[in-house]
Amino acid sequence: MFPCKVGSAWEILAPAKLNLHLEVKGTLSGGFHELETLMVPVRIFDQLRWKAGESLKLRIRNFESPTRSDRQPRYSVENDLVLRAVRLLAKTAKVEPTGTWDLWKRIPMQAGLGGGSSDAAAALVLANHCWGIGQSHQQLAELASEIGSDVPFFLAGGPAICRGRGEQVEHASGLPKMHFVVAKPALGLSTESVFAEFDQMLDKRIKTPSNCNSLLEALRRGAIAEAGQWMTNRLESAARRLSPWMERLAVFFERCRCLGHLMTGSGSAYVGVMRSAAQARAVARKLSGWDLESALATSNC
Ligand code: C5P
User: Which of 100, 156, 208, 281 could form a disulfide with 53 if both were Cys (CB 3.0 to 4.6 A apart)?
Assistant: First the structure.
């Protein structure tokens, strides 16, 4: 994530992420779950802009997007992670939080795509730069994990295996370019509710937890079709109990001869791994006839 100057303002792009593998390894204190997950950033971006100004102000901007639906949840600016991030950074660095912050949200919300977490990481980097407070990457990483489990991943940048609550980030190098279709039903799922449903399920004690090794090894060989067989998300069965869309989308992707398919994060977005950019565009077009919030063709970055 790099700030760039736009006129008198500074701007940063905050990518979405996809989980290509997610295993729940156990439980942690504070009601959290111990995870191992392979995440890749993808080319769906929120945009965050900072302009000098005495008082702190955040505006969530409307944006022109043919895929955005007015059924997306209305947004409470005060609860936005951007504000939380910049206030926390200002407190730590003992400065006044300042400036007008404009956020264009293009990443579907309640989707498992990490939009809010990515915005928070972008805000830490942008504030650190614009306020000239020179906090180290390590200091920002500590704040990131206080804000949310996925924030350290976005701060680190690039694909990674994340463990613990999600805050232990190990860079994953050598992944090939992949083409995806991300389908987001109108109904979102809250992370808390999916984990709560997972806890309710009888088969929650996982006898043989999987890991990312086989998936990573296949990806590094460029064997994406083989890798597709290793892509699984332990939370998917819990999400299927909360939304009929998971099953519907799984059946759809199974039939369209893609290389793999799974839910990302805690849903409700569902991902197909495609053979080519052309197939991704064609499949996204096909899904545009469905009653979804959005169907996007994208790739990892
Ligand atoms: O860390 P974050 O604020 O994104 O987590 C949101 C919720 O997701 C937590 O309150 C918890 O219910 C659930 N969660 C979890 N285990 C994790 C990450 C999140 O149970 N590793």
Answer: 100
Whether residue 69 is predicted with pLDDT greater than 70 in this model: the reply is no
CATH class label, 4-171: alpha beta
Q: Which long-range contacts (CB under 8 A, 24 or more apart) does 7-11 make?
A: 8/51, 8/52, 9/49, 9/50, 9/51, 10/49, 10/50, 10/51, 10/126, 10/129, 10/130, 11/47, 11/48, 11/49, 11/50
The predicted-structure confidence for 149-173, as pLDDT tens digits, reads as follows: 999 999 999 999 999 999 999 999 9
Domain extents in the chain: 4-171, 179-299
**What is the CATH T-level fold of the domain 179-299, as seen in this structure?**
Alpha-Beta Plaits (3.30.70)
- Give me ligand 1 centre to Cα 53, in Å: 34
Ligand 1 geometric centre to CA of 31 (Å) = 8
From ligand 1's centre to the CA of 32, what distance in Å?
6
Atom nearest to 149 CA in ligand 1: 1
Using one digit for the tens of pLDDT, what is the confidence trace for 233-290?
999 999 999 999 999 999 999 999 999 999 999 999 999 999 999 999 999 999 999 9
Q: Quick check: do 4-171 and 179-299 share a fold?
A: no
Is 150 a catalytic site residue?
A: yes
Mutational test site, ligand 1, from 22, 28, 29, 32, max ligand atoms within 8 Å of CB: 32
Closest CA to 102 of 57, 132, 64: 57
Catalytic residue among 46, 119, 150, 184: 150
Atom of ligand 1 nearest to the CA of 164: 21
Instruction: Please state, in angstroms and rounded to a whole number, the distance separating the CA atoms of residues 267 and 191.
Output: 8
